[in-house]
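Hi R.,

Here's the chain you asked about this morning:
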Amino acid sequence: IGLVFTYWFFLGKKEKEVAVESEVDIIVEGGYSPASISVPVGKTTKISFIRKDSNPCLEEVVLPDFKIKKYLPLNQKVMVEITPQKRGEYDFACGMNMFHGKIKVR
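And the predicted structure, written out as C-alpha cells:
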C-alpha cells in the first residue's frame, strides 16, 4: 500500500490545468498556483505573479522560452505578457529552478 501511495503522490497527482483566454493571476506560495495554464496561440496573454511566500528562492520567475526574468516583490502583482507563436509546452520556474510551472499553448 505504501508503494502505491508513493507512486500516486509523485506520479499520479496531476495539477489541474487552467484555460486562460487573456489574463490570469498566479499565486506564488510554496510553488505556483495554478502551476499549469493553457493559452491560445498567437494571442497576447497577461500573466500576473503575486508572491506571498518570503522564501528567497521564489523572488524571481524565469520564462526562458520567452526570454523573461522578473523580480517578484512580496505581495505585489508583477505582470508579464507573452504572445506565443507556436503550439507546445513552455516551462517557467523560480530563479533557483526548484519550483516549476507550465504554459501549454493550444
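The chain is about 10% helix and 45% strand.

Let me know if you need anything else.
M.
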